[in-house]
Sequence to fold (726 residues):
Amino acid sequence: MAIVTTCTQLQSCANSVHRSQQIRAIVSQKPFVSAQEVAERAGVSRSAVSRTFTPGASVSPETRRKVVEAADALGYHVNHLARGLMLNESGIVCLIVSDMGTPYRSSLIRAVTQQLQDAGKIAMLVNTDRSDGSVDLALRQAIRYRADASIILSGMPDKSITQLCLKNGQRLVLINRDDDQEGPFRINLDDAAAAGRLVTAFLRAGCRRLAFANSEAGTPSLMARERGFVAAAKAIGLEVVVERYGPTGYESGRVLAQRLLTQSERPDAVFCATDLIACGFMDAARHQFSISIPPQLCVAGFDDIEQAAWSSYELTTFAQPVEAIAREAVAWLGKDSSENPAERNHSVRLNADLVWRSSIRGG
Amino acid sequence: MAIVTTCTQLQSCANSVHRSQQIRAIVSQKPFVSAQEVAERAGVSRSAVSRTFTPGASVSPETRRKVVEAADALGYHVNHLARGLMLNESGIVCLIVSDMGTPYRSSLIRAVTQQLQDAGKIAMLVNTDRSDGSVDLALRQAIRYRADASIILSGMPDKSITQLCLKNGQRLVLINRDDDQEGPFRINLDDAAAAGRLVTAFLRAGCRRLAFANSEAGTPSLMARERGFVAAAKAIGLEVVVERYGPTGYESGRVLAQRLLTQSERPDAVFCATDLIACGFMDAARHQFSISIPPQLCVAGFDDIEQAAWSSYELTTFAQPVEAIAREAVAWLGKDSSENPAERNHSVRLNADLVWRSSIRGG
DNA sequence: GGCGCTGTTGCAAGCGCGTGCAAATGCTGC
DNA sequence: GCAGCATTTGCACGCGCTTGCAACAGCGCC
Fold:
């Protein structure tokens, strides 16, 4: 019986050599070097090669030396696709982002990719600028590549898709996407609280006619900032003029300035929902309306993008703790899922610290 | 013989069922759904499922319907890791980048990822901010994940590594990394020529005392801009004051302003190697030296980042054709490698068009 | 009815890897 | 010298997939 088995093995083996050569000739001239080839060159078994590159496996120093030698003579690199197939763990983490040319987004991507790499993982980037529903498409892509996790920086996936991801053992992180779905790990800022604190700052600077310049995007973070600001103002008996327009960019800031600065009772303090809006607002205020900031007008923003520190703006703003966000996200990915059954539905809330610059007088 | 073979097959099959259940129980509670399960539910063979999701394969409409139905009842998604293993083509393209929080870099990343997705590929992002040699590490990572190609936006890999990539059938694209290596596809700008054209523009604006504000980074693009500018000036008998400092960011611009604007013969036209440098330069010139731009000083930059259009800068600058760069890169990836043997050593040079804004008088 | 042809389908092999199991090896202590 | 043990090694299997090959079904035509 054993002999017969060996016989069929040999037969199929002979077949395979023929087949694979044929296929290789067709598909590509020279595929990547495999563990098999390394094993042959080192005069050991393929398992020995595999074990050499598997941390914690049992290999004698002598064998390891031979393998390593042969490996980098041939330029061998472990195939992470195959490894992922075996281990059911690809090491890939999918970042789902729109507007990634934007300063805040790109700095967040930078921080996250760096942290992922430090944790031995790798980022796969999916751009969801195009249409709606593309967040769902992106998550499907993540499933196809068997990403260990997906981190969503923009948009909001359909509930059915997130359930699909979770059912497939994919972990999900939502950043600033305030949502009450169970399952995903959610990282949020204290948007409303931060915005509330700003009212006091404006008051101390002697401002009384407050305005809020928002985008029409209507994401939870933006709305929380608006709510927090308006509520805190109302609490001390002040009304806030709220204006909303367009996306969250520079141009919107200019338009919002047009609207807010042409009112009969011109505001003396404006909180812009994002720094980009604030930059546009300030530029329009200065160059079109010849208003000097701060004396005549105080402005604050949110995100603390690099440009906020530029001396043309010197913008007082709330800092997005990008490093902390990235750290939280990656740390959670590293955690054992079954660790804390009580933490099934987990989320974290981080502070946005106010960075004082001269766009508000006093301080 | 056939019977005996079947027998051993059955035996090993029985083993396998036992083993795989055991492994699954240990490794993870619930793996992704496989083609096997879809096949069983649809009452067809596993090959039928595979063919259903392979474009151009022969499946009857009836079978396809049954498969698709079962597939999305179970939430099945083709495993691209396994598919990549078979086809020797992962669909992954590796982007190797440093400073990706920077406006120019992030907009390039945006364009490339979008184009890749349109071409049915997916971007893997590697951050090389950390140490030197990390470009090599990044390329090794690309090899491990069997990326079909790597696109290098920053740094310069060691020759031995690029050779390794090419030998492994990986395609390589170098963007603005002027280099004479054979093999990689190189996309470059006409940096020197563009810079040369700027001299004429400055002249027409009545400037005579030219300066070039460069970073110390010394990348080929930056040096080409410097060379082109200096050469064109010399050609018409003008000397250029060249100053170099630090990285290519805003802060360097400020320092360079300190140096160039405190000279006895203050320049009346400054070409900054990047827009970020230009922004820093302009801010320092205006706010520290109270120089008004353009009357007293003309400034130009390079990249046409978003901030260059902001009304605080209105910077005349050369536009990086990011969309065209991305298109060229992705188009080349799609090409059959054996198509044009003469084009083995291929490269492309794109124009950087001058965008006129008010930081230079006249126009 | 038999034949050839076309379009589908299932079988089985193998992509490169990790790993349980059993065999082999080396070493200690009596 | 040999039992007993610890360590290392090789074998073989399967992860989920694609695909060549052969078997097969359907069909028109002589």
Summary: Residues 1-29 of chain B have pLDDT under 50 and may be disordered. The first helix of chain B runs from residue 2 to 27.
